[in-house]
Specification:
176 residues; alpha+beta; HIT family, subunit A; six-stranded antiparallel sheet; two-stranded antiparallel sheet; 6 helices; 8 strands; 35% helix; 18% strand; binds adenosine monophosphate; binds zinc ion; DNA repair; nucleus; DNA-binding; zinc-finger
Length: 176
């Protein structure tokens, strides 16, 4: 589908590139789900995490280095961010999410948005790196597991609060 190639279009326009190296670029997420939300993408045409193998470990390390760089450039602290991949990505071209843990954003609207960053649907960089290193590939989650994770309660990422709906979670996140 055409919308799945939106990231590739974005990274072809130099105006979007905040950092560029020989191997990778950093762009701003067009629909940020927190105060800071960046994507790190390889220049090589790798569709998703499911194409990764051991030969990509140095590239993954470069993506992570750029994630650290963009946080530093923005004058933010590393501990306030989560860095990783969606277990079930929707957009083409491998992309590493670099997102601040506040999750304060008008683009954060649905339970799916929340649970895709705050359950096992989000694979931290270190976890994915270790999995590629040990097993050589990433396996797709079964559909019923994805549905189960998407249906999880709206638990705050900073305390034990469980929200009854997204408006209440968003109000709560503002207070942190
Ligand atoms: P994922 O679910 O991991 O595939 O996430 C795709 C991300 O790309 C989402 O966070 C979207 O907000 C973001 N996005 C969608 N279209 C664009 C675009 N054209 N340029 C930059 N980011 C985009
Ligand atoms: Zn809380």
């Amino acid at each position: 589908m055409y919308w799945q190639t939106g990231l590739i279009k974005s990274l072809l326009d130099p105006i979007n590139l905040i950092i560029t190296t020989d191997e990778a670029v950093v762009i701003a997420d067009k629909y940020p789900k927190a105060r800071h939300h960046y994507l790190v993408l390889p220049k090589e045409d790798i569709a998703s995490i499911f194409q990764l193998s051991k030969k990509h470990l140095p590239l993954l390390e470069e993506l992570h280095l750029l994630a650290r760089n963009i946080i530093e450039i923005r004058g933010e602290s590393y501990e306030r961010f989560q860095i990783g991949f969606h277990a079930q990505p929707s957009m083409q071209r491998l992309h590493l999410h670099v997102i601040s843990k506040d999750f304060v954003s008008s683009c954060l609207k649905t339970k799916k948005h929340w649970n895709s960053f705050n359950t096992s649907l989000f694979i931290p960089y270190e976890t994915l790196h270790a999995q590629i290193s040990n097993e050589g590939h990433i396996q797709r989650l079964p559909k019923d597991r994805v549905d189960e994770l998407l249906a999880k309660p709206l638990t705050c990422n900073q305390c034990a609060f469980v929200a009854k709906n997204m408006p209440s979670l968003k109000e709560h996140l503002q207070e942190h």
